[in-house]
TrEMBL record:
Keywords: Methyltransferase, Ribosome biogenesis, RNA-binding, rRNA processing, rRNA-binding, S-adenosyl-L-methionine, Transferase. Belongs to the class IV-like SAM-binding methyltransferase superfamily. RNA methyltransferase NEP1 family. GO terms for molecular function: rRNA (pseudouridine) methyltransferase activity; rRNA binding. It comes from the Eukaryota. It holds the Pfam family EMG1. This is Uncharacterized protein. It comes from Dendrobium catenatum. One of its GO terms (biological process) is rRNA base methylation.
Length: 132
């Protein structure tokens, strides 16, 4: 489960009104003006980590039931192993913008919190932390 994922978009002021996905590479100055930590906004990691997990031997052996992503807005997204995560980051950006606008995902539905309601009784929960 990925928690505290900063999946945010903002309306971009231009000729065409469109949403842009906030990331620290392009919008560091804007995030600093809003008193937000730019290092929190790394959607490329949210893209690469599920691909690595879904391509792992654990998944190929049928041992992974689902990945869960919880955003800072407490939206809980379930990603099943059969879902094909787009390989290019630009395709992921389009999907995330769609999610931010409509609050829906075609392949990965939003589910109700808490996540423990959706886990099997005797399942193993594996957690990773980058805060150490």
């Amino acid at each position: 489960m990925f928690t505290k994922v900063y999946i945010d978009s903002i309306p971009h002021v231009s000729f065409f009104q469109k949403h842009v996905l906030l990331n620290s590479d392009e919008y560091a100055n804007l995030l600093k003006k809003q008193s937000k930590d730019p290092s929190d906004y790394c959607p490329d990691i949210v893209h690469q980590a599920p691909i690595a997990i879904l391509d792992s031997l654990l998944t190929k052996a049928g041992r992974l039931r689902a990945l869960y992503v919880r955003s800072t807005r407490h939206a809980l997204i379930e990603v099943k192993p059969h879902v094909r995560v787009p390989r290019t980051f630009s395709a992921v950006v389009r999907k995330v913008k769609n999610y931010c606008r409509r609050q829906t995902c075609e392949a990965s539905p939003l589910i109700k919190n808490p996540v423990t309601d959706h886990l099997p009784v005797n399942s193993r929960k594996i957690g990773l932390c980058c805060c150490c």
